Structure formats: structure tokens, C-alpha cells
Amino acid sequence: MKFRRSLLAFASALSVTALIGAAPASAASIKIGLLEDISGDLALLGKPKLNGSQLAVEEINKAGGIMGRQIELIHLDPQGDNARYQEFARRLVNKDKVDVLIGGITSASREAIRPIMNRTDTLYIYTNQYEGGVCDAGMISNGAVPEQQFSTMIPFMVEKFGKKVYVIAADYNFGQISAEWNRKIVKDLGGTVVGEEFIPLGVSQFAQTIQNIQKAKPDWILTINVGAAQDSFFEQAAAAKLNLPMGSSIKVMLGFEHKRFAPPALNKMHAVANWFEEIDTPEAEAFKKRWHAKFPNEMYINDMGYNAYTAVYQYKMLVEAAKSTKLADIRKVIATGKACVEAPEGQVCIDPKSQHTSHRMRLIAVDEKHAVKVLKDYGVIQPYWLSEIGCDLTKKNDKKQYTPTDLPKK
Amino acid sequence: MAEILQTAQVSKTFGGLAAVSDVDISVNEGEIHCLIGPNGAGKSTLFKLVIGTYLPSGGSISFRGENVTQRRPYERVKRGMSIKMQTPSVFKELPVRQNIHIALQHHIGRAALAREEERLLTLLELAPDATKPAGALSHGQQQWLEIGMALALKPALMLLDEPTAGMSPEETFRTGELIKQLNADGMTMLIVEHDMAFVRQIAQRVTVMHFGKVFARGAIGEILADPRVAEIYLGKTHEH
Amino acid sequence: MFKLLNGPQTLGNGRAFWICFFLVLIIALAYPFFADSYDVGNFAYFLIWVFMALGLCLMWGYGGMLSFGQTFFFGIAGYSYGVLAINLGGGGMTFVALGLAILLAALSALILGYFMIWGRVGGVFFGIVTLSATLVLAFFVGQTAGPEWRVGEARLNGYNGMKGMEPLNIPWFGGESIYFEGSSLYYLAIALILLVYLGLRVLLNSRFGNVIVAIREDPQRAELLGYDVRKYQLITFVIGSALAGLSGALYTSWGQFITPSSIGLPAAAMPIVWVAFSGRGDITATLIGTFLILVAFQTITVHSQQAALILMGAMLLATVMLAPQGFVIGVARSIGRLVKRRGQAPG
Amino acid sequence: MMGVINMAHGEFIMCGAYVTVGLVHGGLPLPLAQLCGVIAAGLVGVLVEMTIVRRFYKRPLDSLLATWGLSLVVTQGMLILVGSSLAGIGTPEGSFKVGEYSFSTYRLVLFGGAIAALAVIYFIFMRTRFGVHARATMQNPQMAQALGVKVGRVYAISFGIGAALAGFCGALYAPTMTLIPTMGATFIVESFVTVVVGGANVLLGTAPAGALLAIIRTSLNAWEGQIIGQIGMLIAVILIIRILPEGVSGFLTRRQR
């Protein structure tokens, strides 16, 4: 009986989505195309992103839309498959003729989308914190980047815990480039990387790694392991009483490991973030209340979901200032350097040279009961690295991704 | 008469067991040569050595004057051997006609192929069943089909391993007549057989194997008259 | 030559079949004139994958060799196309890159195939070895993120994928280039499909086709009819794998992008799913079925959000349980039966 | 073992783990919850055998498709019904030291669990009436049927035991891992490969093969890092297939003769 009812519900849900899909979009609406995984391995992270976008769209539409035009959100689920990202990016741009494309989780999905967007004049907004370095005029990045996260956290860790660091990183571009950043910063501080271990995605057994760490005797560990399988490291390390301080650019505010694991697995974890649910400013509190009212089952509002929310407001600001949805007009607004919005974390602005976003960064630490404390407030930090190495999108569109060991040719 | 096939001290051991040891046989062009002997005498093993699915542990095999000891089976077939295995092995899921076709296409051009196909199907009395999958034929028919496939290769020497196994007496007799007819048209044949009545029907020369060795050889009359042969067959050959 | 288009190895030999065939072809050729340009490009994209399925159908359905490694050759050709197109420069050289990429895929098939077939690897193990090969390649490419992994100008770029190659294009009069995207890619794909499909029909109904089905049925018997089984198996494997290579190179050209996830596990299982769903016994069924399943999966994913994977799974389950020879062959057989019954009714 | 390639095996692991964690959240003590997890996985296994797998004996490739379809349905179904992740339950306390390394006590439990499972399997298949029936059925179903063995039931129970083992694995690992619906997939390559290398016999094949591969992999991990470990393992598989076509069990049984 119950089964049947859920089948019915399922069928009606199907027909509703079909109806929505078929409903003619009013000529006046602004179409936002959204690509977020809500199936597959990354559904855990994709769902809050979808929720964030939906919340922002609902709020803006209630308040009268963008320049009086309602927003129509078209979401497709690429199921974590890069080929699907490409298919759907094309579909959204060419068939649904969206005005802006938002989304993508992994760097690979972003790189899958970029070549397609480069052949159109539609804006693309990437809403994750990532390894940094993309210099592309067609893309805005609104997540935090290494100069906002590593250049703040690593000096703190070195000063507080010591100069010997051990790195465990996911063995793909994000982990490897993040490790490059760490190497450079630690070296500048006079510290040493006593061990670096790259772990293939999907690995979930860490006995050997834990022994290696014990042998190397580091002062602290940089954990940039990725994905649910690799997160098993924390419980296994806690069970082996490793008990070392840890730092990361993705733990706590992104993966909310302190909510998913039983204490004290995440004890002594440190991270620098533009958003985490424990921020308690009035703006943040109001935002959290709205979110939980709409999505009461959400375990944690992570920074990705928050960024996805903010991205829609940033887009609204850009279109209203440009009085146009055309990429060229929007880029004129960005070039003024005054493309700012008041977000729940505080004011965020888009940097004209790199089209990345400034953030107010805070250093947080997790205690043995998994409570999160703010240890330090860095204030607003600009995304300065790309412009330092010579990326200037106001003059030249490189369409490339740079890393500390792969700099633009002078 | 020219020898078409000759084995010289061919042996095959499995583990420590000698299945065939130091066997010399020769087959003359144009004859029907029967290989007989009790179960386990090594007849089928010898056949596999001749066609090449086993490589001998010692000795050599020559065919049409060429040493083929180390040749792979398909190379021996290309040089003019063909075989019908002990248990019928036809392409069970393919139609009867295609079975013949696959064997024929080897050396016959497209133009003549259809005619030859019909001729063989008629000869083998399989024409009415030509579109059936080979696996649907009766056991006896499958044997005939396999003989037909071996024949389709236009071989210089046909090796038939128990061509009448599982056949009714009537089918066995007709198979014997078919073999005699083919021989009359010039085909050389080496045949392993149990059924002594059948051997008597067709054989010209006979080699008897026992415990992996050649036990006796000679014209069919001599062999049948040899009391030692009768002995190893435990009286089986004493017909009246 | 044309006689060989029909024969025992392919379904659909009657006049009715060829009339349908030409009708479908005409509709396909006319399609871009009345369809949305996006849909045309999307169809072209589906067609790109069909080559890989046809190759697998040849190896598995006809030759009895289940290769789990179509993505291995897909990846080799896909990455080769990228590396070559970047290094040779764009323009007409992209077609040289396409040709060389397929050649490289065929060459690696020759080596891997030689190793397996001469090593008497058969049955399930054939699948396992090819699967291992494709996984090894995926792991290997996945860890090439560093700048040291470059071939000439082309960076492999690890898990994030290689990009920056030009799509297939030829210089045209007046300095303009024709880029194979959208409808021009569609026509290129249709032309290639036509070529490959008819070519495979001829191949399968020829001497060669007879031999490979014979080998599938009973390799020993085939050898005893005088065929060098290993050689025929190797040729089949190389042709099938080269077709996967064609898919790979076209895919890279289509998206100007390729990642190791096109080589790794879920991707490696897809061709098998398509071919098994369609009916591995026949190339026409594989052609139609693969196209249909690609369209269906995409449509489901677009319209049903989170339920998509459930629907796809249920579809697979239902197919294997209700139509064991494959969906398309099952449907074709029942149509055939229906037509026959009609034909007999008056008589 | 039964001519079926089960792509949904990982989902039994997930089943065991989810039931365990769910019950611990519901207030049950861990060992009891683990037992329930094993039983649940076993029962689901029997159910799956009777409704789906039963039709696919001797059609291994179709079984691959069917179970893959099943795995998609189950994984995504769990995602929708239960959500994208379950909160963890923490690894039981306790650790011990060997030289300068400290290990979690729970690892010993894992090790002991694996040995115990092998012992139970050995007992069931070698010492019970059911075991005799099962082995007879695997070797020659027609003959077993003729001798009065209820072949269908034997298959269902054997499959259920396989599923229960997977569930056991999930239940044991549950406290040390993040639970997500796709967790089964992380095991699939390894278990697939282990079975292939091992050959048809669980005790003589799979266990030594598992040990062999684990040794190859761990030593390569320690030596050159995880990626080489993974590649090395796959290359070892290719070589083993080349050298021992019947798998490790074929090799060992030949030795015995």
C-alpha cells in the first residue's frame, strides 16, 4: 500500500516536472541554467548547491525579479559525468537559450563546461572554492581561492604548531595543485614538508598512510583528501589515536565532516573559510533562518550552497548595473571594480583582472566535541594571485588555468 | 603406390602415461585404411597427432612428402588433410547450408559455390533440412554433415574418427556405401572404427593398435584371421 | 560486392527492409532542414558513440569476444587526437590527427590483441584483461596533472582533462574554415555511419564474416577447416577496437575536451550495456538500439531529475528479463512474426 | 561460484552498513546492530535471488546487466529515501601500541571478524548437510536434483550467504567509513578482481587471492604511493590470468592431486 502510494507520488512528480518543462517561458523572464549533481557520488555536495540557487531565485522573484523580469531556473542533473556536463551545457545554451550558466562541482566539470562557453557569449559562474588559477573572461568564480585560504591558514599553523607538515591529498588536479601551493608557502616560511601522499579517488583504507604519518612525526597534517571514501581517513586516524592538529581548505565548511562523523574524529581541524554555518552575524543568522525554513532537512549549510545562493544575487547586481544580460555589457560593469553585493558573510566584490571574488575570511577550529570556534578574522582578502602573475582580463583573455609551477609566459 | 601419410616413431605422453608410443603407420594414396583396437588403445590420440591438435612428444609425421610435425592444424588442412572428429562438432547454431558453405568457401570461388553446395547437400541427403540450425539435426545427420564438411575441403586425405558412432545399422550401412563411393572416386581415407562389420564392409588395409603401440597390420582378410587380434577384442570379432 | 550487403549474418535482407532503410536515410538527411540546430548537433553527438557500439557488436556478437576495453581504445584515440591536433596545428591537419589517432588505437589493439589471443586468453578472462587495461590507462592518465606531463604543446592535465585542441575543420575558399559542428558534424557522422554500417554488412556476409561466426561457435572446428583462428580473431579485435578509436577521436573533437573518466569504470561498462540492450547478435539492431538508448537516457535525465537513474536501472532490468536477446532484436522478431502471420492468414 | 556476475554486490555491503548505523542511531548496541545488518543483507540477498538472479544462471552476461540495473535502482532509491549521507557513529574506543606505531583496537576486531567469517563459511560448506547439498549442486545441478536436493533452495540460500557476507563486511566497516549510497561501488573493482584471480573456490581461491593482492598492493603502496599500488594490482591480475588460467584455486587444487 505504502509502496503504491509512493509510486503514485513518483508518477505525479514526473508529470509535474514534465509540465514545468513544457510550460512556455514568458518572454520577459530571465533564464538561469543550472548544472548541479544531485545523483551519483557528489550528490552530497550538489544538493545544497541546488537548494541555495532555488532559495535565491525564490527570494528575488518574490521581491520583483531582476529589472522587473522573473527568473526562470532550469536545472539539469549531470550525475557526476563529465560528458553529461558537456551535453547539458550545450543544451542549456543552445536549446533553452539561458542568459547565464551557473554550476559545476569538480574542477573537471568546470573544465568540461569552459570550452563550450568560450564558443558562445554567455556568462558562466563557477561557485566552488577551488585550486585557483583560471584566467578566462567568460567565467566568474565566486568561491574562495588558495591566496584566501592557504596564504592565511598555513602561516597560522606553522606558527602555532610547528614547521613540519605532512600532506595527504587527493590524487588529481585539485589535490596536486593545492599541494604545490603548500610546498611554496611552507618553504617561504622556512618549514619542511616531511611527507606528501597522493591518494587515488575512491580509496577508503588508510592503515598504511597512518603508519607513514606516525613514522614521519609531523607537527601537523594538511588534509586535502576529497570525497566520502577518502573522508574515512578521519575515523581511522582517530581510532588509531593519531591526534595531530590538522588544517584544510575544504573540511568543515564544505564537507561538514564535523556533523557527519561522531566526535572526536575532527578534533583539532583548522580551516579558513568565507562561509560556515556557525557564523553568527545578524545577516548570517537571518540567512540561515530563511534557508532552514525552506529546507528543514538540510544537515548543514555548506559554503558551496552559500556560494550558489550568493551567485544569483551577484548576477542580479551585474544585470541591473549593466541593464543588459549580454556578456560584453556585464564585463563593462566588472571592469569598473565596483561589482559588489552585500552577502550574508559581508560585502563581496568581483576583481576586474581575474574575475574572481573577494571574501571576508575567518579561521575556524573544531574542538573535541566538534564545536566550531572562530580563532581569527582576516577581514576582506582580495583574490590577488592571478593579477600578480600577469592575468589581466580587462586587456587579454587567456582562457587558461595557471598553477604556481605553470605560470604564463612573459 | 605412393605413400600420402607417414608417421615415424610418433609418441605422446601425458604426465607419465604413454598414450601413443613409437607408432609407425603409412597410408597409401587411394586406399581406405582402418585403424582398429580396443578402447584406450590410443587411436584418437594418434588422430589428434596427425591433424595437429596435439604435438608429439617424439617422432615425426610427414604428409605428401613434407615434414608437418610442427605445423599447426590449419596449415595441415591447407595442405590437404581434413578430419571428422569423434563426437560430432558442427556449428550448432548456424544453418546446415552455412556449415557446408563455411567449409566450401575455402577454395571455391563464389560462382561455383552455390552449385557445389547443392551437390553436397543432395549427396548427404540433407537438402530438405538445409535451413535448419545444425544443432537440430539427429545425431546421425550431424555425423553426415560433418563428413560433408570434411569432404567440402576437397582433401587429399580424409581422417574419419568413428564415423558411424551412434548410428542405426541401416545408417551405418549407408555410411559405408558413401565411403566406398568416395573412395571409388579417388579419395584416400584413414578411419578409426569399432564396428567390425563396418570395417569389413569398407576396409582395404588395417592397422591394429593396442596399449598405444601397433599390434598388427595387414590386409583386412589377414587381420580378421589373426587369432591374437581376436583375443585382444575378447571375442568380439568372432562372428559367424 | 553489393550482393554481400545481404546474407545470413545480418537481419533485414528483404526488399521491405531496404525500402525502410532508404526512407530512414532520406529522413535523416533532411532532418537538419526542419529541426532545431541544437537537436541536430545533439543527434550528431549520439551518432559519435554508435561506432564504439558497432565495434563491440562485431567482436562480441559475431566474434564471441567480450571486450570490456572499448574505452581503452576510445581513450587512446581521444587523447591522441588531442595531442596531435594541438601539435600539428589546426585546419586540415585535424583530419590527419583523426586518421593517426585511429591508427594508434588500431596499433594498440594489435599489440594487446596479440598478447591475449596468442596467449590463449579466452572467455571471461578476455573481458577481465581488457577491463584491467582500460582501468590502468584511466589511473595513469588521472595522475598526469603536473606540468611535466606534456607531449609537445599538449598538456595531458590529469583528471581535469585535456583541452585546447581544434575541432575537425578544413580550410575553405576565401580563408574561411568549415568547422565540423552542429549540422556539418551531423552530416559527417551520418556519412561515416553509412560507410561503417554498410562496410560491416559486406564484411560480415563475406568469407570473413562466415569464418568469425564459425570461430564463435567452435574455434577448434574452424581451425580444422583450415582457418588460422588467431589471425581472424586478431583482425576482428583490431577492427572493433579501431571503431572505438573513431568514436574517441570524434568525441574529443566534438567537445574539444577529454578526461580519464571517459576511460574508467562506469564509462567502460556503457558500450556493453548498449549492445546487450540492443541485441548483440546483429549490427542493425545495435545501430538502432544504441541510438535509441542514448536518446532515451538523455531524455530521462533531462526530465526526471533524481529519478533518472532509477528509471534507467529499471529499464535495463526489464529488458534482460523480458527480451533476453536484446530489445531491438526482440521487437524485430515479433514484428517479423506478425508480418508472417498476416501473410499466411489469407492463404 | 554460480555462473552469475553480480554487479549489485556492493549494494549488499551498503545494506549491511546502513542497517547497522541506522540501528545504532536508534539506540541498539553496536555488535547487536551489526548482527542485524548481516541478517538483513542475507534476507535481501535471498529475496533478490528468488525474484531476479534465479533467471540468469548460465547467462552470466545478462546477469551482469540485470544486477547493474538493480544496483542503479537501489543506489539512487537510497539517495532519495534516506538522503545523501548518514551521520557516522564513530569507531569504538581503544588503541594499542607496537613500537612507535599505534593502532586502533577495532582493526584487530576487523581482522578477527574476517577469520571468524571464513571459519563459519568453512563449517557451513564442509560440515553441514546443507554444505554437502550445495557443493553437489555447484558441481552438477541435474544430478543433485535427481538425488532429491532442492536445487532452487540451495541456490537461494547460497546467494543469501554471499549477500550476508557482503553485509558483514559493510557492518564491520560501518564505524570506520562515511556512509553514502554509492559506497558499494568503491569495493566493486577489488572484489571483482579478487574473485577472478581466485577462481571458483571460495576457500582455496578467494581468500589466498585476496591476501596475495592485498600484499602486492600494500607493499607497492608503501613503496611508491597509492596510484602505483592500484596500477600494480591490475597488472598483477593480467599476469596471473596469463599464468594461472584457472585462478589460484585451480593452481592449488592441481597441486593437491
In words, what does this structure look like?
Chain A has 410 residues and is an alpha/beta fold. Chain A has 2 domains: 2-144 and 281-358 and 383-401, Response regulator (Rossmann fold, 3-Layer(aba) Sandwich); 150-248, Rossmann fold. Chain A contains 13 helices and 16 strands. In chain A, strands 8-7-9-10-11-14-15 form a 7-stranded mixed β-sheet, with helices on both faces. Chain A has a 5-stranded parallel β-sheet with strand order 2-1-3-4-6, sandwiched between helices. Chain A starts with a helix and ends in a 9-residue tail after the last strand. Mean pLDDT of chain A is 89; it is low at 1-27. Chain B has 240 residues and is α/β, with parallel strands linked by helices. The two termini of chain B are 34 Å apart. Chain C has a domain at 2-10 and 40-264. Chain C has helices spanning 15-34, 37-62, 70-88, 93-118, 124-142, 182-205, 207-217, 219-224, 229-255, 265-278, 283-304, 308-322, 327-344; strands spanning 150-151, 154-155, 162-163, 169-171, 177-179, 257-258. In chain C, helix 3 (70-88) runs parallel beside helix 5. Chain D has 2 domains: 1-182, no CATH class; 184-257. Chain D is built from 11 helices and 2 strands; from the N terminus they run αααββαααααααα. In chain D, strands 1-2 form a two-stranded antiparallel sheet. The model of chain D is unreliable at 198-205 and 252-257 (pLDDT under 50). Chains in contact: A-C, A-D, B-C, C-D. Chain A binds chain C through residues 10, 13-14, 17-18, 21, 38-40, 75-77, 79, 81-84, 86-88, 90-91, 94-95, 106-108, 111-112, 114-116, 171-173, 176-177, 198, 200-201, 401, 403, 405-406, and chain C through 36-39, 41-42, 45, 139, 142-143, 145-147, 157-161, 163-164, 251, 255-257, 259, 261-262, 266-267, 298, 301-309.
Please outline what is shown here.
The complex is a heterotetramer of chains A (410), B (240), C (347) and D (257). Chain C is mainly alpha-helical and 347 residues long.
Mind summarizing the main beta sheet of chain A?
Answer: 7 strands, mixed
CATH class call of the largest domain in chain A: Alpha Beta
Q: Based on DSSP secondary structure assignment, what is the total number of beta strands of chain A?
A: 16
Determine the strand fraction of chain C and express it as a percent band.
under 5%
Number of helices of chain A: 13
> What would you report as the Rg of chain C, rounded to the nearest angstrom?
21 Å
Strand order of the largest sheet of chain A: 8-7-9-10-11-14-15
Q: Indicate the percent of residues in helices of chain C.
A: over 70%
Share in helix of chain A: 40-55%
| Largest β-sheet summary of chain C | 2 strands, antiparallel
Integer tally of domains of chain A? 2
User: What's the shape of chain A?
Assistant: globular
The stretches of 5 or more residues of chain A where confidence is low (pLDDT under 50) are 1-27
CATH architecture of the largest domain in chain A: 3-Layer(aba) Sandwich
Note the overall shape of chain C. Answer: globular
